[in-house]
Amino acid sequence: MLNAETGRASADAAEGYLRAVATADFQRVEAFLSELPAVPEHWHEAVTLSSTALRLTPEQAVELQTRIAAVVAEYADDDPERPMPGDTARVAVQWQSFPLLRAAEPE
User: Fold this and answer.
1) Are 16 and 24 a contacting pair, CB within 8 Å?
2) Distances from the Cα of 6 to the Cαs of 3, 14, 57, 60, 65, in angstroms?
């Protein structure tokens, strides 16, 4: 997240980090797609790549991020010391939230 209190210098410094995160997320999806034929059939309904454009205020966007993080936290149990039971797998959950500043952006 960008910090409005620290000003533009903070946004400039954060850009490199945000680009690295976006690149890593993209590469994770690309790697998954190349492995798609090997995904067991019982996992097919659990896979999604989706995108939605919403009309939100900054406050609503923060609320949405907070609520999504809370739901993900309910499932967060990635302790490498504990064996994964049964049909459990590590699952990537990725989301982005940012204003679409250009009127030509797809909805």
Assistant:
1) no
2) 6, 11, 21, 21, 21
Q: What is the pLDDT of residues 3-26, one digit of tens each?
A: 556 555 677 778 888 899 999 999
Q: Encoding tokens for residue 42?
A: 């019982």
Give backbone dihedrals phi and psi of 31, rounded to 5 degrees, phi first. Answer: -65, -40
Q: In whole angstroms, give the CA distance from residue 72 to residue 23.
A: 21
Helix boundaries (H) for the chain: 8-34, 58-75
Q: Which two tokens stand for residue 27?
A: 């590469």
pTM of the full predicted structure? 0.74
